[in-house]
Write a structure and sequence with these properties.
Undecaprenyl pyrophosphate synthetase, 44% helix, six-stranded parallel beta sheet, 14% strand, globular, 250 residues, 6 strands, alpha/beta
Length: 250
C-alpha cells in the first residue's frame, strides 16, 4: 500500500473529482440497510479529506447525489437528504478547524427547504477558508449543467449583451456552475464500475481517469494515495507530443 512518503508533493493534482460509488453494495454485503452504506461513505469522505489536506490538494469535488438519483425510493432519498443535513451540522466545525471551504453545486432548487438552507449556511460559515475547497455535487447532472449554461448564453444574446460570434470555450465555461474552480486533474471512480455517469462531462476533457474495485465506504486516505501515485506516473500531454512536453520542461 502506498503511503504519504511515496507521494511527490510537487506533482500533486490540484483538483480531484470522485464518483463515490458502492455504498449500497457495501451495505448489502453486510445484510444492512442501504443508508448504513451511505453513513459509512460519509466517514470515508472524512478520511479522504484528511488525505487531500496532507498532500496539498486544493479542490475535491465529490458526486453525492445525481439528478437520476431522484428516481430512487422516497425512503432512500429522504434518508440521504437527512444525511446531508446531519453532515453539515456535525462537520462544519471540523471544516473550519481544517480551513476547508464547503460548496454545493447542482440543481439545488429541487432539494427540500431544510437541506437547501443548511447547505447554504455551511457555505456561508466556511466561505473564507483557503486550504481546500470541498465541492459536493448534489442533485447534479452534467448534461443539465451544460444545457443551463446554453440557456443563460441565449438570454444574454437575446438581450444584446453578447454576440454569438463571441462564444468560445473560455466564455462558455464561465456560464457553468463550476466556473469558480479549475477543471479536475484526476477523476477517481470506486466500486469497479467504468462509467462517468453524467458527471463533469465538460470539465474532464483532459482529466486522468482512475478506477478502483474498492467500494466507497472502504476507501481510505491510503487508497487516495494509491490513486495519486498512479496519476504521478502518467504524462499529461494535452494534445502535444512527449518531445514537446520534455522540451518545455528543460
Amino acid at each position: 500500500m502506498i503511503s504519504l512518503e511515496d507521494i511527490k508533493l510537487n506533482a500533486v493534482p490540484r483538483h480531484i473529482a470522485i464518483i463515490m460509488d458502492g455504498n449500497g453494495r457495501w451495505a448489502k454485503q453486510r445484510q444492512q440497510q442501504r443508508i448504513e452504506g451511505h453513513i459509512q461513505g460519509a466517514a470515508a469522505l472524512k478520511s479522504t479529506l484528511e488525505g487531500c489536506l496532507a498532500v496539498g490538494v486544493k479542490y475535491l469535488t465529490v458526486y453525492a447525489f445525481s439528478l437520476e438519483n431522484w428516481d430512487r425510493s422516497p425512503q432512500e432519498v429522504n434518508s440521504l437528504m437527512n444525511l446531508f443535513v446531519n453532515y453539515c451540522h456535525t462537520e462544519v466545525d471540523n471544516l473550519n478547524k481544517n480551513n476547508i471551504r464547503f460548496k454545493a453545486i447542482g440543481k439545488l432548487d429541487m432539494l427540500n427547504d431544510e437541506c437547501y438552507r443548511v447547505l447554504k449556511i455551511t457555505e456561508e460559515k466556511t466561505k473564507d477558508n483557503t486550504a481546500l475547497t470541498l465541492v459536493v455535487a448534489i442533485s447534479y447532472g452534467s448534461r443539465w449543467e451544460i444545457v443551463h449554461a446554453a440557456q443563460q448564453l441565449a438570454k444574454e444574446i437575446a438581450c444584446h449583451k453578447i454576440q454569438s460570434e463571441q462564444i468560445n470555450e473560455q466564455l462558455f465555461a464561465k456560464y457553468l456552475i463550476t466556473d469558480f474552480m479549475p477543471d479536475p486533474d484526476l477523476l477517481i471512480r470506486t466500486s469497479g464500475e467504468y462509467r462517468i455517469s453524467n458527471y463533469l462531462l465538460w470539465q474532464i476533457a483532459y482529466t486522468e481517469l482512475y478506477f478502483t474495485n474498492v467500494l466507497w465506504p472502504d476507501f481510505t486516505k491510503e487508497e487516495l494515495y494509491e490513486a495519486i501515485a498512479d496519476y504521478q506516473k502518467r504524462e499529461r500531454r494535452f494534445g502535444k507530443t512527449s518531445e514537446q512536453i520534455n522540451h518545455k520542461l528543460k
